[in-house]
Amino acid sequence: MTTTLPCRGPSTEAAPLRAVCTREAIPASVPFLRRFAGAAVDRWELSGEVRDAVAVVVAELVTNVVVHTTSDDVTLCLGVRADVLKIEVRDRGHWRPEDHDRPDPAPAHAEGGRGLDIVAAYSGVPAVRATAAGTTVSTDLRLRSRPGTA
Q: Residues 48-98: pLDDT tens digits?
């Protein structure tokens, strides 16, 4: 039996605009969290360009958790402060050992291995924090002025 953890958010914890959702670390969570992020971007009245960038970044980071870790769940946190949208993906697992044999960087013909490069192209170099409790990958997406701001 598969159970899915409920979504939480948006809240005002730590950022004026914040949305958080935790799901099972399964392939179906990738499109679900991409849609969740898109709905938050729409609610916050950010641009379509931002929505597209967030969709790519969230899909890449959540896919990394689903494919490359032993985590049972994945948490997506979005928060807007001033002109920055922070995207953070957390897991409670460890990298699978077979992934450490991959060449770095991935060859051009590889089907995978370029996820963080794609994230960096959309938002900037992601920060990766690995601890015994899991891994957090975060990146900041610069925003142009939002409606109602200077």
A: 999 999 999 999 999 999 999 999 999 999 999 888 999 999 999 887 765
Say which amino acid occupies 97. Answer: P
147 assigned to some structural domain: no
> What is the reported pLDDT for 75?
96
Q: What is the pTM of this model?
A: 0.76
Number of domains into which the chain is organized: 1
The C-alpha atoms of residue 18 and residue 128 are separated, in whole angstroms, by: 21
Sheet containing 73-81: order of strands: 7-11, 17-24, 73-81, 84-91, 134-142, 127-131
Q: Given the structure tokens 């392939």, which residue do they identify?
A: 27
Q: What letter represents residue 71's amino acid?
A: S
* Domain at 32, CATH number: 3.30.565.10
